[in-house]
Each structure stands twice: as structure tokens, then as C-alpha cells.
Amino acid sequence: MKIALITASTRTPRVGPKIASLVQEIITGDVGASQNTKIIPVDIADFNLPVFDETIMPALVPSKGSFTKPHAIAWSSEIAKYDGYIFVIPEYNHGLAGGTKNAVDYLYNEWIGKGVVVISYGIFGGKSANEQLNQVLKGMKLQVTETSPALAFHDGVGPDLWLAGAGDLGEDTRKDIIAQSPEILKAFAELKGLMEKQSPKEVTKQGSGKAAEFGAVSCFYKTGIRRLLGSDLFMCAGWCTAVATACFDIVFYEMGALRKGVTLGLVGFEGTAAEASKFYKVRKPRVTLKNSV
């Protein structure tokens, strides 16, 4: 399972990357917790996202169109890679940072149905920002863990706060965060549990008509086999919004075989790949699909 550890702060200087790195050390240092998972750091600041400037609503990508700006394309491609997420977020002025909300709002279908942990930091642990992002992600149909660690700077408005403002993690705060390792590991265990349950039977079917009635299909990634969710299908083939969170009992064939004329059974349609591409705007999959019988 691939998990993105997302550093949400985009300020300069900032302490976020150091807190995210410590969170990663805590998780990977526990053999049981990190088993069968790969945690990959993702820094929102690296994508230079301006206030949303695309000309299409994220919820309509890719069914009605595509992103056109390089930064949006790169961000979408990155987030779509992962099975789950750990957000490490700051709190500014008793609330969620604008850069964090903007990055979340850039996308929609890339997030749907996936597991996520929110870990906040701030003078009082960033509790307000933590609660706000939890509410947002739940509303966007992500599976949010019950445990959301809030990491406070040592002594609140003390020396470590000013160190953080300069981009440094104070030693006392570092010790305090390490002392919260059990809570961080508990949240991570909940995330793994949510990810393992991301099977077709667990997903809420929210489409309409035939699209919401299908069962399951298997998808082969380079890293192995896993269940293919509706959100994956949305990214793979450009399906209509009605099927975005549903799962399917459809036989997929390798795209090369399709080009040779093998028929593809889709919702309300059966025909060649060329015909399907016109009917469903089928795009090149972001995953490798194997022949199936």
C-alpha cells in the first residue's frame, strides 16, 4: 500500500517538513506499523499551486474535460498514485491554512473513497485546523480515521514557538512529539485498517441507474494486485460522475488486445475500443490492465 505523507505548509520559513519527517521516523521505526506499506513524502510547496485557476470544476475531471495547467496536471497525477494519505498540517489564526484548503480543493475524484489521517501542529496542537480538515475530507467522501493527533509546541507560546517560526524544531517539542508516538501509531493503524477495507462491498454506492449496481473488478498495478474502486475507474477511463464512487463487475482487457477488436462490456455499451473511446471518452489508463476471462 502506497501512502502519501503530505506536508501542507507552504510558508517560508516553515517547520512542517521537519515535523512530517519525525512522524515518518516514528511510523517506519515500528516494524509492525510499517509492514506492507510504503510512505512517500509529498510537499505541497513543490507544486507551486496558485489559487485555483483551472477552467473546469475538479468534480468534472475527467468525465467532462481535463486540467490544462501544468501545476494542476502534476498535482492530480501525484495524488492519484496513492492508496491513502497522511496530512501534516499547520494551524494559522485558529484555523486551516489557505494553502492546505486550496490544495485539497484543486482535486476531487483523485481523493474519493481513500483513507486519510490528519495530524496537526501549532501552539495548542492545531486542534481547530484539525477539526476543520477532518470535516472537509469527510464531506469529500474520504475515509477519515477516528484518531487525529494534535502536536503542540512545547509550553505553547514559548521558545519553541519562535524556533518553529524560523523553521526549526525545538528539542523539547521533538521530545513531546515522540512521547505522542502511541497516538500517531494508533492513527496509522486505523488508516491501514481503512485501506484494507477499501473493497467494493465497503464502498457506499452513490451513483444512479445501472452504474451503481455493479460488483467488483481486479486491477493489476506494477506493485501487485488490488481491488479497483470506482474512483480508480474514474481516473482510468473517464467515466461519468454517476459511477465515480461505485464499483463494477466488468471484465477489463489489456488495451493492446482491445485495439485488436476485442469487445469491451461497459455500462450500457458493448463494442470495440475505438467505439468505446467515442462513447465513454476512454483515456489511456494510469494503471496496467491485464487480460481477464
Total number of beta strands: 11
Question: In terms of per-residue confidence, which ranges show pLDDT below 50 for 5 or more consecutive residues?
Answer: 199-271, 276-293
> How many domains in all?
2
By CATH reckoning, the class of the largest domain would read Alpha Beta
In angstroms, what is the radius of gyration? 20 Å
According to CATH, the fold-level topology of the largest domain is Rossmann fold
* Largest beta-sheet characterization: 7 strands, mixed
CATH architecture of the largest domain: 3-Layer(aba) Sandwich
General form: globular
Supply the number of helical segments.
Answer: 11
* Helix coverage percent: 25-40%
CATH superfamily of the largest domain: Flavodoxin domain
Protein name: Nadph-dependent fmn reductase
Organism: Fusarium sporotrichioides
Domain NADPH-dependent FMN reductase-like: 1-147
GO molecular function: FMN binding; oxidoreductase activity
Descriptive report:
Strand 3 and strand 4 (95-96) form a beta hairpin. Residues 199-271 and 276-293 have low confidence and may be disordered. The protein has helices at 16-28, 31-34, 70-80, 98-105, 127-139, 159-165, 171-179, 181-196, 230-237, 255-259, 273-280; strands at 2-7, 38-43, 84-92, 95-96, 115-122, 143-144, 150-152, 218-221, 224-227, 264-266, 269-271. The protein has eleven helices and eleven strands. Strands 1, 2, 3, 4, 5, 6 and 7 form a seven-stranded mixed sheet that branches. Strands 8-9 form a two-stranded antiparallel sheet. The protein is an alpha/beta fold and 293 residues long. Residues 1-147 form the NADPH-dependent FMN reductase-like domain.
